[in-house]
Design a protein that fits this description.
Chain A is mainly α. Helices cover 69% and strands 0% of the residues of chain A. In chain A, helix 3 (79-95) packs antiparallel against helix 4. The relative contact order of chain A is 0.14. The chains are: A mainly alpha (329), B alpha+beta (542).
Chain lengths: 329, 542
């Protein structure tokens, strides 16, 4: 008995969704472990080494602790919104897996608006952050969510502008076509400025240091998630690490040649995902390296950096790319 | 004692600071160059004249005598050592004195403290309320009549007290509980990651911009001053380690000098002085390293904290060899030391110095040249020279404004005159200059340590039997602690315990100046400014 095309699609989505959720959870656990070990190496410490081989099971133990913790509802919060916020932060980030091309042909939906969809979906998570701070009824949380909104609005613009050069060269927004266009030369070589801008802006989008002002723990205690505990807090955490992974994966796809790498022809189903994930983790490592090296920017400096430096340079990049392309034609 | 003329206060002041007058008081013994009792009504004029002559208010306190209160003002000059002690008598019936807080800004908190501890009301004080004790308390603990009430000994009583304090706070700071439309109040602390202890700052904010802020103290108040009044001189030693737990050695030093001067004894041998300077300078480095780490932590950089603590740990290991303690040192004794340093300590220091010099270069690369760090700290928390002196700011914060006042040179004590080191100053008076001054001071301290271990003589480190009491009189000693000038004012009545021992702690005055800095800052800047001032709460609250 064969399934109809509709049911085939349903099965595909369910399988892909299950894979995405599993991957995200395991990946986040691994990233947290990696962050701890990287920071420990940078800071002359040893990090988690006792639980499991190389301390790999430490984050699992922590996750079990967080799951088994009591969920505290502070008495002053706006209950419904407070409840929805962590889900709203986590769920949209997951959706990015819809268009992530892991290898040639390994993609759920190769949409022709491509990564635009991702950016519009991940922006929903900022609404989650905002309402998390708002509903907490805490001044620190409110300050944190105010900062998050301001930051998101500012950094969305350079983030999108920096990808325009890539789109112009590839002639498409489809993720697969962008990757195919890089089979000869990676876009990081033709668009180095755009890559830097994209990297900075995606750090800010993922609320990572030195742009982590919404949760700035030395100023705002814990920012927007001050009042969250247990698994709700863990969802924010999971969302943050997944966002880092996703933005690094998109950066790797757009600029670092995606699945391209040696042995692609002989073993496309293995080599494709392998190279993409390797590139992604390399970028994630840089993200962590930056976090443990720099102090945090102040909110007004952050805005100034976006509007006065990133956006003009991104525009310049779009302009020069267009010029070069039209001259070459 | 110089008499004060009706009108010509200026002439009087010039008269008393003349060289021959200066020597009338036994400076070597008391640490005070000239002393005068002035009529209560004249104190404002006298203070104004001191201000005109460029003096700053070093300390202001009161003493409860059987007949009356004595309010004691210590003035000092930043250019050269001219410590003047001016007293006014406040009768117990009237219990009022004129406030000089409009003349010297630092007097604001000093007067509040006197009001808190003695109940003396200062007329025309802009903000006279309790500063160290809880808002709801009714006691004045430094009165000799106060014998202590063991309140708060059980849980219920504690809860009741906490509730009363909350109500008391709401009465004293009504703005913090009312609802506002545009602006609002934020309690930064007492529990907050960046207040370096239990400090509360009531911030008045519009968005993220600070309109004004008021530090609220007293959360770690243990009343060392009262404690010392009821215990013997020897029993006061452990208190010295618990004031500024980060740089406790300087506090040991001050107490040792104070009592040695008062008793008229000299340390057992020069070796004692060398070891004292050695341990104090090592301790100063640990203090600055801890500051550097936590300051960068406030700015959001984690890594320097671990580097700083790594080095600090190595020094603590060295200090532990000598003292057996890692934090709250109780190492000095009258005329000597608890014990001599062990033989392995000097080689350990010699091994540490080259390693640490390499590390200092790392700090330079990681922090000093870091563009974000520069952006965050330059032009932030600007303090003018005049304001710094008006608030009685001392230590690196003062030197960052360009005033070269370091008590190790200003009021030379111990073997510092024989050692070659520089007073580090900067000119900008912002958070970045404070950082530069402290980092440079670490290098200067290293220089001192190198000289000391080269010259270290042999000798005894303990004196024989000493009298248990201190001769009757008044004594003032100040040393350069890691955070600024730490002064001790002792009034002895010749008995076995101090009659009054005022601790003039540097962070208390340094923190006071934050009122001037805060307006206009962002919330992120508040923690940066607070970090740059380098406060240690147990020392402020005492």
């Amino acid at each position: 008995m064969t399934l109809g095309p509709f049911w085939q699609e349903v099965v595909k989505i369910v399988l892909w969704g299950t894979f995405a959720v599993l991957f995200v959870s395991v990946n986040a656990l691994f990233l947290v472990w990696m962050e701890r070990r990287v920071s420990a190496k940078i800071q002359l410490r040893r990090g988690p080494i006792h639980v499991g081989p190389q301390g790999l099971l430490q984050t699992i133990a922590d996750a079990v602790k967080l799951i088994s913790k009591e969920l505290v509802f502070p008495s002053q919060v706006d209950k419904l919104v407070y409840y929805v916020a962590p889900l709203l932060v986590f769920a949209p980030v997951l959706s990015a897996f819809i268009i992530l091309p892991l290898g040639p042909g390994i993609i759920l939906r190769d949409l022709n608006i491509g990564f635009l969809l991702i950016f519009s979906l991940t922006n929903i998570s900022f609404i989650g952050i905002f309402i998390a701070g708002w509903s907490s009824n805490n001044k620190y949380a409110l300050l944190g969510s105010m900062r998050a909104v301001a930051q998101n609005i500012s950094y969305e613009i350079p983030l999108l502008l920096s990808t325009m050069g890539v789109v112009m060269i590839a002639g498409s927004m489809k993720m697969t076509e962008i990757v195919t266009a890089q089979s000869g030369l990676w876009f990081v070589l033709t668009q180095p400025l755009a890559f830097l801008i994209f990297f900075c802006a995606s750090l800010a989008e993922a609320n990572r240091a030195p742009f982590d002002i919404p949760e700035a723990e030395s100023e705002l205690v814990a920012g927007f998630h001050t009042e969250y505990s247990g698994m709700r807090f863990a969802l924010f955490f999971l969302g943050e690490y997944t966002a880092i992974f996703i933005s690094s994966a998109i950066a790797a796809t757009l600029f670092l040649g995606g699945w391209h790498g040696p042995f692609l022809e002989s073993l496309p189903a293995v080599a494709g995902p392998f190279w993409l994930i390797l590139k992604t983790y390399a970028l994630v490592f840089v993200v962590m390296w930056v976090r443990w090296t720099f102090p945090r920017l102040r909110s007004d400096q952050l805005m100034a950096f976006a509007w006065k430096i990133l956006i003009p340079f991104a525009l310049l990049n779009v302009l020069s790319t267009a010029l070069v392309l039209s001259l070459c034609k | 004692m110089a008499a004060i003329l009706e009108k010509d206060i200026k002439a009087w002041l010039l008269e008393v600071v003349k060289a021959d007058e200066l020597n009338k008081k036994d400076v070597k013994k008391t640490g005070i160059h000239f002393e005068a009792i002035v009529p209560t009504s004249k104190i404002r004029d006298v203070a104004k004249e001191f201000l005109n002559q460029g003096y700053f208010l070093e300390s202001l306190t009161a003493v409860d005598f059987a007949e009356c209160f004595e309010a004691v003002y210590h003035f000092n000059h930043w250019k050269e050592l001219r410590r003047g002690c001016v007293k006014i008598l406040v009768t117990k019936e009237e219990n009022k004195a004129p406030s000089i807080s409009s003349i010297y800004k630092s007097a604001n908190w000093f007067e509040r403290e006197i009001y808190d501890m003695f109940g003396i009301t200062f007329i025309d004080h802009p903000n006279l309320k309790r500063i160290l004790l809880p808002e709801s308390s009714t006691i004045h603990p430094l009165l000799k009549s106060f014998k202590g009430e063991p309140a708060g000994s059980d849980v219920e009583q504690c809860l009741k007290l906490i509730n009363e304090d909350k109500e008391g706070f709401e009465i004293l700071y009504p703005q913090s509980v009312t609802h506002h439309q545009k602006d609002y109040y934020l309690n930064l602390g007492p529990q907050h990651p960046s207040t370096h202890g239990v400090l509360r700052i009531l911030l008045h904010l519009a968005g993220e911009r600070v309109l004004d802020g008021e530090p609220i103290l007293g959360y770690s108040h243990r009343h060392h001053e009262k404690m010392m009044e009821i215990q013997s001189y020897l029993a006061c030693w452990p208190n010295m380690g618990r004031l500024d737990y980060v740089g406790a050695m300087s506090y040991n030093f001050a107490y040792a000098i104070l009592i040695e001067k008062a008793m008229g004894i000299a340390p057992a041998s020069p070796r004692v002085e060398y070891i004292r300077v050695l341990t104090t300078e090592l301790n100063r480095i640990t203090s600055h390293l801890l500051w550097m780490g936590t300051f960068l932590l406030d700015l959001g950089a984690f890594t320097p904290f671990f580097y700083g603590f790594d080095d600090r740990e190595k020094i603590l290991d060295i200090l532990e060899m000598a003292t057996g303690e890692r934090l709250t040192y109780d190492y000095f004794r009258f005329g000597g030391l608890d014990k001599d340093i062990p033989a392995e300590m000097i080689p350990a220091i010699k091994e540490f110095i080259p390693h640490f010099k390499k590390r200092l270069k790392d700090y330079d690369a990681l922090i000093t040249k870091n563009i974000i760090f520069k952006k965050r700290t330059r032009n932030l928390g600007y303090l003018t020279k005049e304001n710094a002196l008006a608030y009685g700011v001392t230590g690196p914060c003062l030197r960052a404004t360009g005033v070269p006042m370091d008590l190790r040179r200003h009021e030379p004590y111990s073997i510092y005159p024989e050692l070659d080191f520089e007073i580090v100053t900067a000119t900008d008076g912002d958070a970045y200059s404070r950082y530069l001054v402290r980092m440079k001071e670490i290098e200067e301290s290293l220089k001192i340590i190198q000289q000391v271990i080269e010259k270290m003589p042999e000798g005894a480190t303990i004196l024989g039997k000493l009298p248990k009491n201190v001769p009757k009189g008044e004594y003032y000693t100040a040393v350069e602690a890691a955070r600024g000038s730490f002064g001790m004012y002792l009034v002895s009545d010749g008995t076995l315990n101090p009659y009054r021992l005022k601790l003039r702690t540097p962070s208390f005055s340094n923190l006071n100046s934050i009122i001037e800095i805060l307006p206009g800052c962002l919330v992120s800047d508040v923690v940066a400014v607070l970090g740059s001032i380098d406060i240690v709460l147990p020392e402020i609250d005492r």
